[in-house]
Design a protein that fits this description.
- Helix content is 18%, strand content 31%.
- The protein contains 8 helices and 30 strands.
- The strands form 7 sheets. The chain has a 6-stranded mixed sheet with strand order 3-2-1-7-21-20, with helices on one face. A 6-stranded antiparallel sheet has the order 24-25-28-27-26-29. A 5-stranded parallel sheet has the order 9-16-10-11-12, with helices on one face.
- Strand 4 and strand 5 form a beta hairpin.
- Helix 1 packs parallel to helix 7.
- The longest helix has 15 residues.
- It starts with 8 loop residues before the first strand and ends in a 15-residue tail after the last strand.
- This is Pyridine nucleotide-disulfide oxidoreductase.
- It comes from Streptomyces avermitilis.
Length: 454
């Protein structure tokens, strides 16, 4: 029953940041019906960014990362139970304990999980970690406190780089292995990744680029790794930071447009079915979603961003309980931040949606700069390093599709416009880490079976 819904039954799958904010927003929107939140972890929603920062530094414990509730959403919390499917026709969510939950509206906010090490026997070695859950962070922090001889981090994306930074801050020896040419290259392109590589090496990281880890060694406990260049690294802790996997497998038989890049939805967060037809009663929010954005050529964006999960959850909640003419689009400009090796890196827009970059303020040498990204003559992103105050200005340029290179006033020297260089965004297939913003284009994730008219 599309349209206005102030009572009835809403089910949220995913006791995540997006799930919690959507539950709160539903009540703020005046929804008075029954609200059920399903989560496969035993904990209420908690915050993940501190897990790779404060928790690893020993400044906070893993169980202190619970998300504050703006208000009690008066929900029936089903924690520690996994959803196993959706029956779109019967409008039911199936749970692994055999129960089925009927819904009038469904919000899918199942997020991502850490990409596992491909060899299960090696992944099971004592001392090998991924970093996604509270348990992961608590166990890894305990190991770092015990003072290992060396930590091997596999993957030079944001998570891997933050882990390496925490290790160095704790005085631990650390090796980072990245298949691509530099850390963060998948997210920020070639120029800034060179700065990231220099910062890691200046802080004492043994950074190995252009190599893959071919095997993890150990007999019960991790002792080191073999690299593709024939070298080996002796270490007693290994952190696998190979990016994220979207939690969509449970939807394989649902008929929704769910694939490795997430669940496709429209700008109003309404899920598409596998034939590209929008559903009226199934919504998607957070890291598991793929949605079109007019500022980026209506490409389908997949984001792993804290702010996007919050903003999209609130749009989804609004649209779940309001009729069509009152529904809102999710058009927020993506933004992201990371602190590592003493640098504060902030990003706005989609750096991977670019063909050229220009340093508009500051310089690489000063380790303080604003880099503006352009695509086909207009501004699509900006990244600042220790210059966060400039970011709002560049956000405005992106929102207004300002010309690239940016006009005078957007930069601190007139010649900057002549210094536009290729943004050098690599093919993600060549990297150990994935970009935190992925442009997933228009292609479906699998071949469709054409329905023959009967």
């Amino acid at each position: 029953m599309p349209g206005d819904l102030k009572d009835g039954r809403i089910v949220i799958v995913g006791a995540s940041l997006a799930g919690l904010r959507a539950a709160e927003a539903l009540r703020e929107e005046g929804f008075t019906g029954s609200l059920t939140v399903v989560g496969d972890e035993p904990h209420p929603p908690y915050d993940r960014p501190p897990l790779s920062k404060q928790v690893l530094l020993g400044q906070a414990t893993a169980d202190s990362t619970g998300l504050p509730m703006r208000q009690d959403p008066n929900a029936d919390w089903r924690l520690g139970v996994r959803a196993t499917g959706v029956d779109l026709l019967a409008k039911q969510v199936l749970l692994e304990d055999g129960e089925s939950l009927p819904y009038d509206r469904l919000l899918i906010a199942t997020g991502t999980r850490a990409r596992p090490w491909p060899n299960p026997a090696e992944a099971a070695l004592d001392g090998v970690f991924a970093l996604r859950t509270r348990e992961d962070a608590g166990g890894l922090a305990q190991r770092l406190t015990a003072g290992p001889e060396r930590v091997l981090v596999i993957g030079g994306g944001f998570t891997g780089s933050e882990i390496a930074s925490a290790c160095r801050e704790r005085g631990l020896e650390v090796t980072v292995a990245e298949r691509g040419p530099a850390p963060l290259v998948g997210a920020l392109g070639g120029t800034l990744s060179k700065l990231a590589a220099a910062m890691q090496r200046n802080h004492g990281v043994d950074l190995r680029t252009g190599v893959t880890v071919t095997a993890l060694n150990g007999n019960g406990s991790f002792t080191g790794a073999e690299l593709s260049d024939g070298s080996r690294v002796d270490a007693d802790v290994c952190v696998v930071a190979l990016g994220a996997v979207r939690n969509v497998e449970w939807l394989a038989e649902s008929g929704l447009a769910a694939g490795p890049r997430g669940i496709a939805c429209d700008a109003g967060c309404r899920a598409f079915n596998m034939y590209g037809i929008v559903t009226d009663d199934v919504f998607v929010a957070g890291d598991v979603s793929r949605f079109p954005h007019p500022l980026f050529g209506y490409q389908m964006l997949s984001l792993e961003h804290w702010g996007n999960a919050v903003e999209q959850a609130e749009v989804a909640a609004h649209n779940m309980v309001n009729p069509g003419p009152l529904q809102r689009p999710h058009l927020a400009v993506p933004s992201f931040w990371s602190t590592q090796f003493g640098l504060n890196i902030k990003s706005v827009g989609v750096p991977t949606y670019s063909d050229h970059v220009v340093i508009a303020q500051g310089s690489l040498e000063a380790r303080r700069l604003a880099m503006v990204y352009g695509y086909q003559g207009r501004v699509t992103a900006a990244v600042t390093v220790d210059m966060a105050k400039a970011l709002d200005y560049y956000r405005h340029l992106i929102e207004t599709a300002a010309p690239f290179p940016p006009p005078p006033g957007a930069q601190d020297r007139a010649v900057a416009a002549d210094l536009a260089i290729p943004s050098d965004v690599p093919d993600p297939k060549g990297l150990s880490h994935g970009p935190t913003v992925a442009l997933t284009g228009y292609l479906p994730d699998r071949r469709l079976t054409l329905v023959q008219p009967g």
